[in-house]
From TrEMBL:
Region annotation Disordered: where it falls in the sequence: 1-22, 49-68
Protein name in UniProt: Transposase Tc1-like domain-containing protein
Amino acid sequence: MEATSIEKEPGRRSDSTRDQRRDVQLMQSLGISQSAIATRTGLTLSQVQYAASHPASPKKRSGRRPTLTEAQVEDLIEFITASKEGRRMPYCKLPQALGFAVGEYCIRHTLRKLGYRRCVAWPKPPISEKNRLLRLESSHAHRDWTPSSPGRHTKTWVTRKPGEELDPTCIVEKV
C-alpha cells in the first residue's frame, strides 16, 4: 500500500486521508509496528500515532448551525448584486425585504464570511456625450457656488466584494 504525499509547504506533509487512517488501524491490528506502518504508507510517525488513536472518520462538526440556509444565502447574494437598490440597502432592511426572520448582525456576518464589505460608493460620472454637455452646462451655471451652497454632501454606502469597485451597481452617478 503506497500513498503519495503532496508537499503543501516546505517541511510539511499533506494531511492523511480517511483511507490512510483506516489502513493504519488495520495494519496495527495485524501487529505491525508504527515505524513499519509509517515507512509503508509514507506517513510521518506522528500521523501514524494519531491515526491509531483516533477514529478513521472524523466526528461531525459540533456547534451551532448557521441561521441562514444555503438557499437563503444564495437569495441574499442574488438580491444584493442584482440592482443598485440592493447594493445600497442597509443591513437592517435586508431581512424585511427578503422575508427572513433574522437580524442585521446575522446578515452582516454571513456577507462578511462571503467576502462582502460595506464601503463608500465611488463617485463616477457616466461618460456619454449628452452627460458631458450637461456637466459642462452645470459647471458654467454654478461657477460662483461656495462650499455652503446646496448639494449632495453625504456618502452612499454599498455592499460589495473587493474588486467590484467599478461595478455599475456599486457606483454613484454624479452629474
